[in-house]
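Predict the 3D structure for this chain.
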Amino acid sequence: MEDPLPEQMRAAGTALLTALDPAARESAVHSFDDEAARRWLEYRPRPRPGVCLAELDVTARKAAHRLLATALSPSAYAQAMAIISLEEVLDRAEGWQRGRHSADYWVAVFGDPARDDRWAWRLEGHHLSVNMTVVDGQVSPAPIFFGANPAAVRYAGRPVSRPLGVEEDLARALLDALGPAERAAAIIADEAPADIISATRGRVDAPLEPLGVPAERLGPTGRALLDQVVALYLDRLPPELAIREAARLDAGPLHFAWAGPTHPGRRHYYRVQGDDLLIEYDNTTADGNHAHTVLRRPASDFGADVLATHHRTHPH
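Done. Predicted structure below.
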């Protein structure tokens, strides 16, 4: 049965470009062959390729959100909306000094979704970057970056907002399930790095060393929890795409690594690596309340996998 997702993205991408006025379209649209603009990942509040949602009318902004929704599962779309809304919370916490706002997100389209057999798109801003490449009717996802600052807002010790809470809690459950030898292999450093190791690089050399503990050394509970962590990140994608990505990883090696203290409220970091898989999480501030997470496919980011197939079958 033909996968409907590429056509859903094509329709949503075309609707977005139709909704843009000429000036906005000129800012939003780039050549697919513009590697510098297409292989872009920036989760800090910096200038970026594309058009800002703040510059669009309601119809065009809604079209951008509908395009984003084609790339994410319902739960991940809810996370993305919570991340975007945190810009207003963070601006208040900073005394309104930096002018952060929830419309400071940018959409870029590479190629023409209505006509081209190769096109891509990205919606990105502070703590959010969703990249999708469509080639010959195949969708290639990643990188997908979700962050949160503050990672948690609490009332009387209870969370009011915690959009990446499951990402932390499942990994802590996995760490707690490890025996002494497994935990010693998993903990690769006493202090967490300052940020995710892959950072904003357009290409990642994998694997990252040290690998940590291999999945085959884990007991049944630890292995089940590691599988849940991987599934959590893959399930950011629409179900049909998540199933395909999970099938790519079946029976391949997996490693889990942790850095930093193991008790909550301190800076900590973890990663999971497999064949063409890199998951990273870190909580980067002294009070452990500023989270970054990313799902990457080091050999296939930005559509490298589908492009390789395209070039084999369509010599240029």
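Residues 182 and 217 are 7 Å apart (CA to CA).
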